[in-house]
Design brief:
Bound molecules: pterin-6-yl-methyl-monophosphate
Distance between the termini: 13 Å
Strand order of the largest sheet: 1-2-3-4-5-6-7-8
Structural class: alpha/beta
């Protein structure tokens, strides 16, 4: 899953793709690099980010979803708003990626059930503004699992079919670096829940901290693509359904190496 943030302030690529033509060209580039799907988002979810109005999100996302879909690029829409999800599916999006797992918009579950498209339920505890204060756990793995289970139950109750669900531990969302590593170490816990699992580690802060220099300065986001590819290979080896990444080629190469090591074949 290639990341296409049509935003002004996403943490690692904010502002690069606000222009629709540039965004569409980048989406096609991600597809050409081997992305199976391009994830189009119009609202930054970085810690501390303020929300953008629905009209702004729609204006950013829908033309890009439309153009990429028409060009034959499979697109997911990264949104917490049911109205945006419905409009994006109408424009050709084939999956809804909801970082709030249905919590931000009570209309989302019914909208996704009605649209009949896959729905990524990411673990989330609140909007970016409050995110760091929400990173408090006794046992992050069991609590994230329990909170994701509740999201699954609500989705099923709204009529979403279980095979349409994808789970995501929500790395960096109300989690500190230690929480993120614990969640990755326990990936099988989430795989055992039943639905497919997506991992979104790309260029995130916990990777920067792990790669800090001798002075303790974290590696900048632009220098985290190799680390991201390593996570992608390890996640793929453990059975993750997808990884959501900025540098598709690096992760696809790493996942291909993992597949050859494991199976000797070329399947990804
Ligand atoms: N499913 C899913 N969606 C996401 N959307 C945005 C971001 C924030 O990262 P970005 O600003 O680089 O897009 N991370 C995720 C994630 O981890 N999982």
């Amino acid at each position: 899953m290639g990341v296409l943030n049509v935003t002004h302030n996403s943490f690692s690529d904010g502002g690069s793709y606000l222009d629709h033509e540039v965004a569409v060209a980048h989406g096609k580039h991600l597809r050409d690099q081997g992305a199976d799907i391009v994830d189009v988002g119009g609202e930054s979810t970085r810690p501390g980010a303020e929300r953008v109005a629905a009209e702004v999100e729609a204006e950013r996302v829908l033309p890009v979803v439309r153009e990429l879909s028409r060009a034959g690029v499979p697109v997911s829409v990264d949104t917490m708003r049911a109205e945006i999800a419905v409009a994006a599916v109408r424009e050709g999006a084939v999956l809804v990626n909801d970082v709030s797992g249905g919590l931000a918009d009570p209309e989302m579950a019914a909208a996704v059930a009605d649209a009949g498209v896959p729905w990524i339920l990411m673990h989330w505890r609140g909007h970016s503004r409050d995110m760091n204060s929400l990173a408090v756990y006794t046992d992050v793995v069991s609590e994230v699992r329990a909170e994701l289970s509740a999201r699954v139950e609500d989705a099923l109750a709204a009529g979403v079919s279980e095979d349409a669900l994808v789970l995501d531990p929500g790395l960096g969302f109300a989690k500190n670096a230690e929480h993120d590593w614990r969640l990755l170490r326990a990936l099988e816990t989430f795989l055992d829940m039943g639905p497919a699992v997506l991992v979104g580690a790309s260029r995130k802060r916990f990777l920067g901290s792990a790669l800090a220099d001798s002075a303790g300065t974290p590696r900048p986001a632009s220098g985290r693509d190799v680390a991201t590819a390593a996570v992608s290979a390890l996640a793929a080896e453990r059975g993750a359904w997808a990884v959501r990444v900025h540098d598709v080629r690096a992760s696809l190469d790493a996942v291909t190496v993992a597949a050859h090591w494991q199976h000797g074949g070329s399947e990804r």
